[in-house]
Amino acid sequence: MKVYINGKYYDRGEAMISVFDHGLLYGDGVFEGIRIYKGKAFKLKEHIKRLYQSAKAILLDVPMGQKEMEKAVFEAVRINAKNDGYIRLIITRGEGPLGVDPAQCAKPTVIIIVGDIQLYPQEYYEKGIAVVTAASRRMPSDSLDPRVKSLNYLNNVMAKIEAKQAGCLEAVLLNHEGYVTECTADNIFIVRDGTLLTPAPHYGALDGITRMTVINLAPSCGITSLETALTRYDLYTADECFMTGTGAEIMPVTMIDGRLIGNGKPGPVTRRLIAGFRKLISVRQ
Ligand code: PMP
Q: Which of 77, 126, 131, 149 could crosslink 170 through cysteines, CB 3.0-4.6 Å?
């Protein structure tokens, strides 16, 4: 494995950054997770655009343009000779003094890791997973907008711990008004009377790229979709439910807070979308 740090490549064991980097000290930075299917970074432009929007929102000047970043990612994939894998693209505020003030951080640190990802065993895609609602609420948009994919994932980590403590693999986070936002690293969808429903990002969710891919895919699968407000009641009474994310792709959810969703098996709309998604990632290269 060769890791890119600020324009140079390092072996895995040598790939290191300063302990004074504000990415470590304060979670001050942004990142992306991107899949490689058949040797190509999937939806790379979209991921890079979101990365730069996240950076802009936190006043972090990325020390290279989007085109240059795209080229760097291409090169990292080529050097690592990955056909199927995962890219972690990270930009931190860089090295600075021990105080919070980022003004003295000389320059951002740019890191590209090309590796593998396997979040869930195959059997879960066939039978679905059980999730719980986390007691921890999603970070309010007026504190740190969840559309910023920042390096500060403590909110998500805490909810993941809650899920595990409840014997589940995932948790649903609500916002302060009790509306459904997303899971710890995935967006959430339900199917009600044949229509696909998902929370609009302004309720407190990342504007997921897999989410958008599924919304765009829906019409070709004969499904209409709507971004709306959802409550726990909507989840409990849904015909189907699934999560979407770069790592998980489309994962059926068959139990929420002890309630079976539909008949407790991945539903027909979910299965159609999984098939459509698999086709998309296998033919688009
Ligand atoms: N929400 C959160 C909090 C995430 O970290 C992610 C990415 N894993 C998602 C949703 C899904 O977004 P995407 O489809 O762009 O990977």
A: 131
Work out whether strand 85-92 and strand 40-41 pair parallel, antiparallel, or are unpaired. unpaired
- The bridge status of strand 249-256 relative to strand 129-133 is parallel
Name the residue among 245, 168, 239 with its Cα closest to residue 205: 245
- How many folded domains does the chain comprise? 2
Task: Quote the domain boundaries for residue 51.
Answer: 2-115
Give yes or no: residues 64 and 21 share one domain.
yes
Q: Whose CA is nearest to atom 5 of ligand 1?
A: 185
Name the DSSP letter for residue 58.
T
Same domain flag for 59 and 141: no
Q: Which residues line ligand 1 (CB under 6 A)?
A: 33, 156, 182, 185-187, 206, 208-211, 244-247
| Token reading at 175 | 């916002």
Q: What's the pTM?
A: 0.97
168 with 188, same domain?
A: yes
In this structure, are 128 and 99 located in the same domain?
no
Whole-number Å distance between alpha carbons of 109 and 201: 28
Q: By alpha-carbon position, which residue is closest to atom 9 of ligand 1? A: 186
Strands 109-115 and 240-245 turn out to be unpaired
Compute the mean pLDDT over every residue in the chain, rounded to the nearest whole number. 96
Closest CA to 243 of 261, 220, 258: 261
State yes or no: pLDDT of 285 exceeds 60. no
Q: Which of 69, 97, 115 is the last residue of a domain?
A: 115
Do residues 240 and 27 lie in contact, with contact meaning Cβ atoms separated by under 8 Å? Answer: no
C-beta atoms surrounding 11 within 10 Å = 9
Q: What pLDDT, on a 0 to 100 scale, did the predictor assign at position 28?
A: 98
If asked whether residues 189 and 209 sit together in one domain, one would say yes
Residues in the chain, total:
285
Considering only CA atoms, give the Rg of the chain.
Answer: 19
CATH code, 144 = 3.20.10.10
